[in-house]
Amino acid sequence: MTFLQFAYRNVIRNRRVYAAYFMASSFSVMVFFIYSMLLFHPSIENQFIQEIAFMGMAVADVVLVIFTLFFLLYSLSAFLQARSKEFGILQQLGMDRSQLQRLVFIETMILGVVALATGIFFGYIFTKLFFMVIRAMLVLDTLPLYFSPEPFLLTAVVFTTLFIVISIAGSIFIRQSAIIQLLSGSTQSRETAHFSKVGAFLSFGLLAVAYGLVLYCLYEMNVWWSPVIILCAIAGSYYFFKDGILYLIHKLQRNKQLYWRSLRIVTFSDAIEKIRENARMYFIVTMVSTLAIISVGVVASLTSFANQYRESNPISVLYVSESGNPYEASHIDQLTSDFYKENLTYTLLTAPVTKQTSAATNRPVQLLRETDINTIAAVLKEPLIDLEPGEGMRFGQEVRDGQEQLIHLRENTIYFHVDEGYQYFPLPEAAFDGPAYILSDEDFERIVNPYLYGDWASSVTTVFAFHVPDWLRTDKVGLTLDREMIASYEGNQELPFYFDNPGLNYSYISSTFSLLLVTGLLVAAVLILAAGSFIYFKFYTNLEKDRRQFEVLRHMGLTNQELRRIANRQLYPQFFLPWGLAMLHATFSFLFLQAVWVDIAAMSIAMEMLIVLGAFTCIQAVYYLLIRWRYFAHLQLHTG
């Protein structure tokens, strides 16, 4: 048997230990390859979509590679530790240090090459499904499956380099271990679980400070404390698993009525040992799980914003023309022509807007007629208004208690009282010079003098509001006008008109957020798989020790049902203690995110966040049941 065959058979024989490592590696390769296929797709002609696709996929690829590197390094050390006794026996039988290093290097490279081939194979299979989802989200005419060497070469080069680095790291791990350490295997003598009271109270204090600062930031809307919150949460989580949880268990042990009862003495003593041994692993799982939940939550909130975009922009297409605008007729003709080409039905509504001067501020204000607003509101099925002479409403903005005001128009000596706002179809502030108010028809007719600092030509602006029932299909309406608007902003030029197409804007927003959602979900899937794999590695690293422990308990007379209860109680904290803290971190993060969205867009993301938290909880429960099933099978804890 050659050395290569020996390494290959070692991999096959230890396939149970390597299973999670192989699955996580293959899945990471598959996701990276799928991203790369979109990155190099030749059929994406829209420049904006090209840019967001390139940026999103490139960032996701970099994050995947960096995380996969650290994850595989940790995984490698875990299963090399599980096989340490085997390596010690090989050295006793005459294998020298360099041969052992070579053996580990070859085994790791075999796993890496097979994982690379498997990931690319399944990645290419699932790319078609991925493209179908992306095509629907980005509203593309076609996004066919293609064959190009670039994605294959990029994936192969990146992950081959990654697996070489991992293999070298494994060789270094073996080189630094003495034979006596290897022969002792993963089993260590049970020691008293030492903890620091200072560390325990520090963990409670840091977590309390982190959560307290979140609540403070909610009240003050101050995001500058975010770095401090993150650092406190990370440090608090580390010390919680290192000292805090051991301190709490120690307190429970002192309650003899609770501790010296039934099987709890076995459960608690074993839990203390496992927590002490796996504190760093629990910390890593908590941070990885928190990152996965928050990343999906943030992207889901962005998608919610896109879905609620229509509610804040009910006017399908808006064109605002200043008096004397030479392009007005041609632009309106162009828009109606675009509607005809896209086979869209529309209703055109117009409303004159008059500029006057507020005597209190000596600044311009924009005035709209009650009848014109009601005409638009009736078409949009929004509430109508009924104003008496001397009454007015702030258009597009809320008037809070204490903000009521009496406005005096200098040009025409008109007074009107404003104590409420009309926010049902706000117009963009950029379309007007100054705040806008709605006047009763009687007061509006009394405006006979032009703007104080101009003439009638500079006093009147006309709003053209197009209502399109099928507004999502307006993304190809007014593209020329939209480009002119963008050019004017970039060049600081003033135009005699203003154009806004929410359908076009929504297509950009929806495409960006949908792409981010898919990217975030796939990256989160890698993170969740990795978090579960960390626990999997620890289970199988200690499997032999646990099997011997349960065999002793069985000889002592414990029934199979009692052994299952003990095993269940040992599994609960390993799965749900890090998960519970991660959910707590994510919940406070979502509270802060909700406050930010309320401040930006008066939008609730509560339902989206509940769905995200519920979905991740279900995933964790399913993963727990699968691991428990395999764990019980290996410990021979059958029912009955």
Topology:
Elements: H1 3-13, H2 15-39, H3 47-82, H4 84-92, H5 97-138, H6 149-175, H7 179-184, H8 197-220, H9 226-253, H10 256-259, H11 264-277, H12 279-307, H13 309-312, E1 317-322, H14 328-341, E2 347-357, E3 364-369, H15 370-380, E4 391-395, E5 405-409, E6 414-422, E7 436-439, H16 441-445, E8 460-467, H17 479-490, E9 497-500, H18 502-541, H19 543-555, H20 560-601, H21 606-635
Parallel strand pairs: 3-7, 4-6
Antiparallel strand pairs: 1-8, 1-9, 2-3, 2-8, 4-7, 5-6
Helix pairs in contact: 1-5, 2-3, 2-5, 2-6, 2-18, 3-6, 3-18, 5-6, 8-9, 8-20, 9-11, 9-12, 11-20, 12-18, 12-20, 12-21, 20-21
Explain the overall architecture.
With 640 residues, the protein is of the alpha+beta class. The protein folds into 3 domains: 1-186, no CATH class; 192-315 and 501-640, no CATH class; 316-500, no CATH class. 67% of the residues lie in helices and 9% in strands. The chain is built from 21 helices and 9 strands. The protein has a 9-stranded mixed β-sheet. Helix 2 (15-39) packs antiparallel against helix 3 and helix 12 runs antiparallel to helix 21 (606-635).
